Predict the structure.
Amino acid sequence: CFGNARLHKEGMIETIGKLTYRNKTILAPMVQVGTLPMRLLALDYGADIVYCEELIDMLMLKCKRVINKILDTVDYITPGERVIFRTCDREKDHVVFQMGSSDADRALAVGKLVENDVAGIDVNMGCPKEFSTKGGMGAALLSQPEKIELLEETVNLVKRIERTGVAAIAVHGRTKEERPQHPVHCDIIRAISEAVSIPIIASGGSYNYIKEHSGIETFRQTTSASSVMVARAAMWNPSIFSKDGTVSLEKVMQEYIKYAVKFDNHYASTKYTLCMMLRGQVETPRGKKLCAALSNLEICSEAFEMKSFYEEIATLLETKKASLGVTEKELDDHVEDPDVIQSAVRFIRREYQANITPKSCLHEWCIKNHLQPTYETVHRPRDRLFCSTVTVANQKYRSSIWDKSKKLAEQAAAIVCLRALDIPEGKLSEEGNTLVHKRKREDKEILNNTENGDCLPAEASHKKLHFSQDVSDTDAFLAS
Ligand SMILES: Cc1cc2nc3c(=O)[nH]c(=O)nc-3n(C[C@H](O)[C@H](O)[C@H](O)COP(=O)(O)O)c2cc1C
């Protein structure tokens, strides 16, 4: 069995800590899923504590802390302006930051970096996946005595961890070799619970116990644990935390999307989480539209009929931006370049044939002409928009309209190039368009690793989602 050690703030700053881990229901750490929208939704439905997805220490140490006045959030962003961790006041007393680390100094440095923005800090010692263990993180920590004082027996190990002063230990009741669909070892969690005096948080009950809210308590009693942490059952429907019974998935998804839009959640995380909620339904027309979406706007407009909500929030954010005195002119810090062919275009998915994108058209044309298109994208941090320049045969092309995602910006650049070269771009309105392209979305490359789905560190996670037919069910996904 393996677990997560929690270095509670109390342990680090004696007078501030308020969070305790007794008698709590907890949203478990889940890569891609446990971003701000899911955490807020879980709190709305009654979770007491919410964990972020595992974030790797080295990546966090590259981040700077930024107050985002437009979203009212605190963001930790990489030098490349990627948001790695976003949090807000509402969750401040409830959110536990989970890190992946194999080095005490780095772990401490990350702890110091985030300690004033979170309620607790968790070191992941549970992830059995290779990407984690080969870096000496996750479950690898369990076999490095010098790092966590391993003893032969799990109970003795937990006792020794307890003596380090951690506030609580979460135990996922499975061995390193077992997979999430194997029965959870309640007896082992119980033995651990009885052996130590700090709170034990039982994890691993989604598959066998937590079909509805009452299952959380059954799992707690069966394991004699202080608290229960829920991962998959909450991912499938976060209203599992509600004492009033579960809410329809349709409503839950809408609520989730609202948070995702309000807090500008990365669309890949939004899409992944919604696909996990849809489970067996990703092959339905809506599931397919969701999988094809390349932005939160597309998720709202194509798959959920929530375009007007998206637009309303976008307008609000624009107004806020303006009231903060940030003008469009100030924002447009992208250098004008006379050598670049520019025009004001935007890629609108529904205007194109299902399997065709401007990028794929350009790619195909380039292959035929023995050319190689190269894309360079810049991100404007203040409004989080992207602008891409494509170079073909030493000529640069770009759209003057900045877009919501790198992918959309690249498509727009491809459109400018195709139009300048008078090449069909795959639009439905193009007469006699007979181009047939295999759908070849960058997303598919990004999302193409089912193996890591049950515990994937954030650095890799945006590159490893996959929603193909064979991953239409979470259980299959986790089992792979
Ligand atoms: C999509 C997904 C991502 C996960 N990511 C993490 C993670 O980042 N850190 C971690 O410690 N465990 C992670 N886990 C493991 C869960 O926190 C939990 O221990 C496991 O799923 C068993 O609990 P359950 O039966 O309630 O699902 C992940 C699980 C899932 C399903």
